[in-house]
Design goal:
With 70 residues, this protein is mainly α. The chain contains 2 helices and no strands. The chain is elongated and about 55 Å long.
Length: 70
């Protein structure tokens, strides 16, 4: 069974995070993908899922900043 790449063809690295804006992988993860075994691919996908979930928390400007009432 082949594990499908998370690539979305939006290949643009975010300089602040170091992650691809399309698939949330790092450059080493992207370059390793084609020769990685299934265990490594699953590990990369787990990292991607965590990064994507964290990014979803920040959509709409929600960043957890303190808000002063005064």
């Amino acid at each position: 069974m082949t594990i499908q790449s998370p690539c979305t063809s939006v290949c643009r690295m975010n300089p602040a995070t170091g992650y691809c804006e399309g698939c949330f992988r790092t450059i080493p993860e992207i370059t390793d993908w084609s020769r990685a075994d299934d265990a490594r691919k699953r590990a990369i996908l787990a990292e991607v899922a965590g990064r994507r979930a964290a990014a979803d928390l920040f959509e709409g400007g929600l960043r957890g900043e303190c808000v002063s009432d005064g």
